[in-house]
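User: I'm putting together notes for a lab meeting next week and I want to include a structural view of one of the chains we've been expressing. I don't have a solved structure, so I'd like a prediction I can at least talk through. The sequence is below, exactly as it appears in our construct file.
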Amino acid sequence: MVRPEHHPRSDDQKNYSESKSETTTARKHHPWDYATHNKKYALLIPPASEEWYVPPQLFQAMGCTFDLDPASPGADVVHWIPARRHFIRSDNGLEQDWADDFVWLSAPYTKENLPLWLEKFRKHANGVCLTVDRTSARWWQELCANADLILQVNKKIHFLRPPDEPSYSSPALGHTLVAYGPRGVAALRNAARNGLGTIFVPMAKSEARLAELEEELARLKDQRDRAEEPKQESKRSYKTPRPLYEVLDRPFAFDFDAAPYPRPEGYDSLVVPWGQSSYSNGPFSAKRNPEKHGPADFSRKSIAENRLGKNVVIVVPTMNYINMLLEAGAEPFAIGRVPWEDAETGEPRPSPPYITGFVLWGRQYTAPDRVAIMAQLKREIAKLNY
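Assistant: Thanks for the context. Below is the predicted structure for the 386-residue chain, given as structure tokens.
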């Protein structure tokens, strides 16, 4: 629901909202005439700001994440809106480049600017737009006639208001969600399945367009599935470059190679004893290794051999930032699978990852201090049993 101002306000009193961005000036007829002809009811309504926030239930029903909210009061104000970026009033989202972003738009509802926002959204053609049911308005007809899918919300939306602002329990008009593009179509179908309303296909799009969108959605799903599935097993082997091997071999004089090439048929270095000074350059990925042995398996074997008093040098893949820290002289220490807590609910994160800590020592710590602190740190972390 949207409501123009009853009385004009000074510039410093104007607010930008999820529903509209401008305050209208006083007119000879009552401003609610733009939304309703019930003047008797309208005259009972006190002046209000233009802050009207779309409630969380709509986004929960759609079950998607947007790239951009170009008409936002700010991510800190409407933190429940699942958009990665927000343009606030000072950004002038109407003039900004929306790139190829999947957009959520609840446009500022003023007679002058609403058609401009909706025309920009229509040309952008990638997102979901919420608009009031002004079905006889030209802008509504143009927006919906060219949409890929529309959803008539089956109940009046009770917009949220800022603190200390009056709220109203009976919105004057209904609302429509309008989708452009395959992601928008998927969002509205989710919303319909979740009971938010009924979906309609504009005649101009018909079943042919739906079939086209189905193909596009299938393509996107296949692309996502292929990105998530393990890569094909590879029998290719990669040897340590000779210059690097010579640098590593010089101080340690290796007498055993844990991953020789070519590997003798049936040979498995994970089940045989290693030498007194071993070098391990095992498979970098268990998923891509035909026998499903990866860095974790060779790390466990290296630790077991070291506990027998043997020397082991093992090379494993790691993240660039780990190398950055080590090159800067950071001292690592194992922490374990830390049950990080949800910032809002306090619930522990499911399936937490393994965590390594790093200390970049300040000059105030002497070498003996560092040894003592690290020993104490490791003892106390062990008690946490992560």
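A couple of points you could mention at the meeting. The radius of gyration is 31 Å. The CA atoms of residues 286 and 292 lie 4 Å apart.

User: Perfect, that's what I needed.
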